[in-house]
Write a structure and sequence with these properties.
single chain, 398 residues, mainly alpha, disordered C terminus
């Protein structure tokens, strides 16, 4: 099948929508976890394990299938990703036990893994690099915008619609099915395909941008650690510490975090390229301080502000990394490079959530949150120290 004409507005919109709804489906459970806990009788700490299953599924999927769109093309991988999103919603619809929830989360993880590299690479091939709106911008808004809207929409539907554990999944199912139909109507964008081979993908760090890649991944991964913990335990914080039963309130925190991650790429244009990651690290430290304040004072406002600040800082780091990959890495390794970048990020999304779950069991939510906030600040300062010691502009070749 011949490659699709670059710059096609319809194809770009279809791929962006498929990316958006697939990622939205992965955060729908976030505000529903307290309801699942009540219905199935599991403790709040179990939520961190269920969330970690999803993140681990993403990482495994990226490592095993991250090169798939480079091998067989973007379109078939996007079809597989959106189809898995439909399957995940169906499993959630019938879920009545923790093992079934875990199965649904694994399916969601694989859908996210498949769509991340394929959609980012496809958008890069559809949108000319000299376009006013850059491919990395569209990809990040679709990715983080989906993560943001999924949790908020689920919270609103859980509060207002009948059958709060079913209605959000019906809506997700319908939208994901539309994405499948849309992707099926597009044509292939990859000009070169290497042929399918199933093997564990070694982490592919582009040698031509290695230093920038590693620094961006470390900074963005630190921000993702906060996003993961917020996703896993915000409902627990609002319910047990603030004694708020509103699912929309919990969804608002996670929505703010991911929405600001999408918006975080905008300040990049006003910051000197060599200072982007330094500013991002300072933002991560500030966000960690605000999060610790929220835990110490049992206040909602500092938590919401922390989510916004952390999101903006994370978005700056992610945007920096994706921009370098999509503009400076070899096209034949582009899908694998994007997948490796997000494998690092999703590893950071999962592991701290598990650690916080263990801390909550050993102590309680508030001290666990304070310890985690301190760890985030230390990681961000390590990256900042690396930037200061090297004294090398982040935008120059490695």
């Amino acid at each position: 099948m011949s490659p699709h004409r670059p710059g096609s507005g319809t194809a770009t919109a279809v791929v962006a929508f498929a990316f958006w709804i697939t990622m939205a489906g992965t955060t729908v459970p976030t505000t529903l976890y307290p309801l699942y806990g009540d219905a199935m009788g599991f403790s709040p700490v179990t939520v961190t394990g269920i969330f970690a299953v999803y993140a681990i599924g993403v990482v495994v999927g990226l490592l095993v299938l991250g090169r798939l769109s480079d091998q067989i093309g973007r379109r078939p991988v996007l079809l597989a990703a959106t189809s898995l999103s439909v399957c995940g919603a169906l499993v959630f619809l019938v879920a009545e036990s923790v093992p079934v929830l875990c199965v649904a989360r694994v399916i969601s993880g694989f859908s996210a893994a498949l769509v991340t590299g394929a959609a980012t690479a496809s958008l890069t091939e559809l949108i000319p690099q000299d376009s006013r709106i850059k491919p990395a911008t569209v990809a990040l808004f679709a990715n983080m915008g989906g993560l943001a809207s999924g949790t908020l929409a689920a919270g609103v539907l859980a509060d207002l619609a009948p059958s709060p554990l079913r209605t959000p999944w019906v809506v997700t199912l319908v939208l994901a099915a539309i994405a499948v139909i849309g992707v099926a109507s597009t044509r292939e964008t990859a000009a070169h395909r290497s042929g399918f081979t199933l093997r564990l993908q070694p982490l592919h760090v582009p040698t031509e941008i290695r230093s920038d890649f590693l620094r961006s991944a470390m900074a963005a991964g630190t921000g993702f650690a906060v996003l993961g913990v917020l996703t896993a335990v915000t409902g627990l914080f609002t319910g047990t510490v603030l004694h708020e039963s509103s699912h929309t309130l919990a969804g608002l925190v996670v929505f703010t975090a991911f929405a600001c991650t999408a918006l975080g790429q905008l300040p990049v244009r006003t910051v000197r390229p060599g200072a982007v990651l330094a500013v991002a690290c300072l933002g991560l430290v500030l966000g960690a301080a605000l999060m610790a304040t929220a835990m110490a004072t049992r206040a909602f406002a500092p938590l919401l502000i922390a989510a916004a600040v952390n999101g903006l800082a994370t978005g700056m780091a992610v945007s920096h990394g994706i921009r370098d990959i999509t503009t400076r890495s070899e096209p034949r390794h582009r899908g694998a490079s994007v997948s490796t970048f997000f494998a690092v990020l999703y590893s950071m999304l999962a592991v701290p959530a598990i650690g916080v779950g263990v801390l909550i069991r050993a102590t309680s939510l508030r001290p666990a949150g304070e310890i985690f906030s301190a760890a985030v600040a230390v990681l961000a300062l390590v990256v900042l120290l690396s930037l200061v010691l090297t004294r090398k502009p982040a935008g120059t070749p490695a």
